[in-house]
Amino acid sequence: MSTDQPRDSVPSFPTSLGTSEGTTITLLGQDLANDLMGNVSFGELSYWLITLQRPTPQQARLFEAVLLGLADHGFTPTAIAARLTYLSAPDAIQGALAAGILGGGSRFLGVTEDTGRFLADVLAAAAQDAGTLPGDEQGWDELARRAVADRKAAGRFVPGLGHPVHKEGDPRTPRIIAIARAEGLYGPHLALFEAIGRVHPEILGKRLPLNGAGVSGAALADLGLPVELLRGVVLLARCAGLLGHIAEEIRRPVADSIYRTVDRNAVYIPPVPDETGADGDQDVPHLR
Description:
288 residues, mainly alpha, CATH 1.10.230.10, 2 domains, 12 helices, 3% strand, globular
C-alpha cells in the first residue's frame, strides 16, 4: 500500500527567504550563485534577510558600520567564555561560539536592544501625547529630560549611558552619528539619544558617555529594524569577533592560563548568611 499523499493534500510552508531545487538555490527571489555571490556583501545580505528589502548603499554603509563597531572589544566575558569552552571541548567549535553568544544580556551585547526599545517607547508615547515629535533641539531636550527623570524616579538605569573603559567618550558614538547624518539616515531615535546625552547630567548629577552599544541601537532603529531583532544583529556581529578569538586561541592559547590562574588562586571562605550582591552605579557595566 502506497504511503504517498496526493500532492494537493501536502501542506505548504511559505517563505520569502531561501529555497532549493536540483540545480539552483533561490534566496530572496534571487539566484544565489549568479545574482548574489560576488555581487552582494554579507552585511547587505544580512540586512536584506532581516527586512526583506535590499538596502540602499546608504543603508548598507550605516548597517555595516554598526556591525563593525559591535564585533569585538577584547577579553570581555563573552570572549573569555568562548575561549574557555573551546579549551574544554576543542572538538566542538559550535559550543565555544554558542557559549560566547549566550552571554549576550543586559550588561554585554543586550544594551543595543535595550536602548532601541527604550527610545522607541519614549517616541511612541510622545507622538501619542503630542501628536507629533519635536522639531528642534530644545524640544528634543525637553523630551529627553522627561524620559531620564522618569527612569530615575522608577529607580532604573538609562540604557546607552556609561562605559567602564571609555569614560570620557566612546569613539564609536560620534562616528556612527556622523555616518548616519552623512547618509541622510539620522532619525528620531538618534535625535533623542543625543538629547539624552546633553541633558542627563542635570538630572543624574553626573556626566556619562553615550556608549557604542546604545548608539548602535538608535541607528538600527532609525534604519527601521524591529526592536525585537536588535540583539540578534549584535549577536551576528559578535559571532565574527568570537570566531576571531577562537582562531587566536588556536594560534596563541591563553584559556588554560586563565583557568589555572583562577583555579590555583581559589581560596575557601565560610559562607556568610544572607550574603547578597548589589548592582553598581549607572556608569559601571551597562556597556558594550
